[in-house]
Design a protein that fits this description.
The chain is mainly β. It folds into three domains: 65 residues, SH3 type barrels; 59 residues, Nucleic acid-binding proteins (OB fold (Dihydrolipoamide Acetyltransferase, E2P)); 57 residues, Beta Barrel (OB fold (Dihydrolipoamide Acetyltransferase, E2P)). It contains no helices and 16 strands. The strands form three sheets. The protein has a six-stranded antiparallel beta sheet, with no helix packed on it. Strands 9-8-7-10-11 form a five-stranded antiparallel beta sheet, with no helix packed on it. A hairpin with a 3-residue loop joins strand 7 and strand 8. The protein is flat and about 70 Å long. 14% of the residues are buried.
């Protein structure tokens, strides 16, 4: 389901087709001067390749806006080359290649609910929660009096992801981690 929309009506988060490629708009810049037509620059991410590009248009140009289906699914298990997710209402299972989930795999554990976006049956991407709770499997013991600097130490989480945590956090504890940059937020 697609429809043509003026580029000036675009908003960040809109999905569209340009030059037979699927893009998601990340930012829009409108520039109008008295002597020239409105110039529209769409900072966009190619959904299939992940590359960021800037699409330049004139104010009256129309772009094909597309409808992307979003479904909430839960992480089920790791299949080796792919990750399996399940719809908690219909029990339908979907496998997604690990090559599409390189960053997201650092935060996927049992019980994490994600949002899978599809277009005409093709899986475009997944959105994970902004914060997840993970267990620390390895961390260095705190050294008494070692607070001359930032008082952080390395920790390895249950997914194998390595992050920095405050020295008072111990191995075996659950912590909340930001999925945007992998940083420690707080204890769980």
């Amino acid at each position: 389901m697609a429809n043509m929309v003026k580029c000036t009506e675009f908003r960040p988060g809109n999905f569209y087709v340009w030059d037979n490629q699927l893009y998601v708009c990340q930012a829009i810049d409108l520039n109008k001067t008295a002597m020239a037509k409105m110039k529209v620059k769409l900072k966009s991410k190619n959904v299939r390749t992940g590359s960021i590009t800037e699409v330049s248009l004139i104010g009256g140009d129309k772009v094909e806006l597309i409808y992307v289906e979003k479904r909430k699914m839960g992480f089920l298990y790791d299949e080796g080359e792919a990750i399996c997710f399940m719809d908690n209402e219909t029990y339908e299972q979907v496998s997604i290649s690990k090559t599409l989930l390189e960053w997201e795999m650092n935060f996927l554990v049992s019980g994490v609910e994600v949002e899978i976006m599809t277009y005409n049956g093709e899986i475009l991407c997944i959105t994970i929660p902004t914060k997840v709770t993970l267990n620390i499997t390895e961390s260095e013991p705190a050294v008494r009096g070692d607070t001359s600097k930032t008082a952080m130490k390395d920790a390895i989480l249950e997914t194998g992801f390595k992050t920095k945590v405050p020295i008072f956090v111990e191995q075996g504890e659950d912590i909340i981690v930001s999925t945007e940059d992998g940083s420690y937020v707080s204890r769980a």
